[in-house]
Amino acid sequence: HLNQGMALVHVYMDGSVLVAHGGTEMGQGLHTKMAMVAAETLKLPLESIFISETATNTAANTSPTAASASSDLNGFAVYNACKELADRLQPYRDRMVGEPFSKIAKVAYLDRCNLTAAGHYCTPDIGFNWATNEGLLYFYFTQGVAIAEVELDTLTGSHTTLRVDIIMDVGRSLNKAIDIGQIEGAFAQGQGWSTTEEFLYFPTTGRLFTTGPGNYKIPSAMDIARDFRVELLEGADTSALKTIFSSKGVGEPPLFLGASVFFALRDAVGAKRRQEGVDAPLYMESPATPETLRMACEDQLAQMVKIPQALKDGKTPFVIRI
Fold first, then answer.
1. Does residue 198 carry a catalytic annotation?
2. In the beta sheet, which residues pair with residue 16?
3. Predicted confidence (pLDDT) per residue in 190-200, tens digit
4. 149, 198, 252, 298: which one is catalytic?
């Protein structure tokens, strides 16, 4: 039931268009994409489209802005409303070829043409029967691939991400600049999740210790790849996509690509272990913090400070000699 969206579109006599839809703009560029959908459908310049902030008195019973589906749901709802208006206005455009849209809209109003339309969209063909294991969970899939190159300081465990290459299939992008920005942001979030964002707890109380920016380390500017390259897949056949203008959702799918940094670091640790003659299996948990990376190298210094298992069990006093 959450796979539905709605929109309300008004055309004014001065040629401007006001669009209200059910998605929440939180910096991801949703309003821009919705304005572009309206402009394309009504064949108007983008400057003529205005977005009304999301409110339940204009767009009721909206679905959450989540799961990378907001452009799909609200975009098609905006399209349906604008397509209805475009069909109503087409006879006036045919009679007034070359006239500005403001004059066309005014003539349509004086002719008592309804210049308001509501649009609704529900994702087709989805539904899953868990009892029979049949059906379609998702309308489509968003694919991508990433390659990361890292430099690991085996003495301290710190690392530098030298280069990242990403290619993402987002169908026919509604806005390439926005989609590339979403990919970059999702990758950085995934990189932080797999390398720096560690949960630590107080051993006596079990209370979470890493609760603020002083302890919980999200990615910063210095964590971003020195050479960061993002491309959108071009030339793919999108004719089978029944989405708005054959686009695909892009907000969350690239997140796990950030784990490519983790796997690159794991390969770097493996190279150091082979250099040290260590052939034991490498077990490395995420996130790959400097402590985890340093101790995983298994060189002479790591062996000198490694705490014996008996000490962890509280059975044997010990002395560390360096």
1. no
2. none
3. 999 999 999 99
4. 252
